[in-house]
Amino acid sequence: MKNKNISEIGEFELINTIKKQFITISHDKNITANIGDDSFCFKFGKNNICITKDMLVEEVHFKKEWISPQELGKKSIEVNVCDVAAMGNIIPKYVFIGLGLPSETPETFVNDLYKGFKKPCNEYKITIAGGDIVKSDKIIISVTLVGIGKQEIVKRDGAREGDLIGVTNTFGNAGAGVALLYKHGIKYKYNKAERYLISKQNNPKARLEEARKISKYLTSLTDASDGLYVSVNLLIKNSRKGAEINMNKIPISSNLKKVFKENKKQLNFALFGAEDYELVFTVPNLQAKLLKKLIPEISYIGVINSSNEVKYLYNGKEQKIKYSGYKHF
């Protein structure tokens, strides 16, 4: 058997390989969400404890010249809160921050970075409980977040035939924002719509309150950190179902439409742009109107079926969609 390198395997297949090695050896009945979901969760008394970890690496997830230290610190917390929100009505409580820093890093950078960490922690009432700092060639931010909830969690694997596929807000903004930065850099004189897209890349917001409001009605849930296409596939594969997606119903912001006028370009950002950090979920048809009343910004983009595949339709015609987003390896 050929010894493949990880660039041949890819990020998600690598995760599946690790998952297969370790998920079968655990017989702990307190575990409620295992490897492969947005957070690891377990029962402790009447509570669900959910733990998640995310990393931001210089030149992979960000460029120093494109984002301020405070924005970077804030984003590092928000993306982890997003993973906790993707488990349902979970309250983020404690965070551990690991840093890898080059020796020449200015002290002011670190101070501003921690100001960024502090802002969302104050907002969500999260305690910064510890961490670690080491020397590294590039800036690495590794955040571990612990959340607590009394309600049952919502995993990726509960979608049922006939459920509607819903999303919060609009898609493609963050991906379009980073595309602008790659094209023009930070010193370019951007217009208002372009600045909005860049702000969505640098200043994401977790949908914690939205998750709290709707989680008890959902059958499955995840976030859109890796793009809408990936998120839909995660729900479908974990639930062992299929889906039909109406691309005409994927919500696109007016700012994205102003900057990128081609429908194909807009949809490409929405499906593959990543880092929108919106919620992607399934809900029984009977509950769909109720959720729209709770959160008017919800859109329904498709329906679950038993086909074991995902079909994308545009103007009623099936489209051949191939993943064209970012690949870590």
Q: What does this protein look like?
A:
It is built from eleven helices and 13 strands. The protein has two domains: 37-149, 60s Ribosomal Protein L30, Chain: A, CATH 3.30.1330.10; 164-319, PurM-like C-terminal domain (Phosphoribosyl-aminoimidazole Synthetase, Chain A, domain 2, Alpha-Beta Complex). 35% of the residues lie in helices and 26% in strands. The chain has a seven-stranded mixed beta sheet with strand order 8-10-7-11-9-12-13, with helices on both faces. The model has no long low-confidence stretch (mean pLDDT 93). It has helices at residues 6-9, 11-22, 69-85, 107-124, 173-184, 192-202, 208-214, 228-239, 254-259, 263-272, 288-294, and strands spanning 31-33, 40-44, 47-57, 91-101, 127-135, 140-149, 164-168, 220-223, 242-246, 279-283, 298-305, 310-314, 317-319. It has 329 residues and is α+β, with helices and mostly antiparallel strands.
What's the story with the biggest beta sheet? Answer: 7 strands, mixed
Structural class: alpha+beta
Strands ordered across the widest β-sheet: 8-10-7-11-9-12-13
CATH class descriptor of the largest domain: Alpha Beta
Apparent shape: globular
The CATH superfamily of the largest domain is known as PurM-like C-terminal domain
Question: Can you summarize this structure?
Answer:
By secondary structure, this protein is an alpha+beta fold.
Write the layout of secondary structure elements.
Elements: H1 6-9, H2 11-22, E1 31-33, E2 40-44, E3 47-57, H3 69-85, E4 91-101, H4 107-124, E5 127-135, E6 140-149, E7 164-168, H5 173-184, H6 192-202, H7 208-214, E8 220-223, H8 228-239, E9 242-246, H9 254-259, H10 263-272, E10 279-283, H11 288-294, E11 298-305, E12 310-314, E13 317-319
Parallel strand pairs: 4-5, 9-12
Antiparallel strand pairs: 1-2, 2-3, 3-6, 4-6, 7-10, 7-11, 8-10, 9-11, 12-13
Helix pairs in contact: 3-4, 3-7, 5-6, 5-10
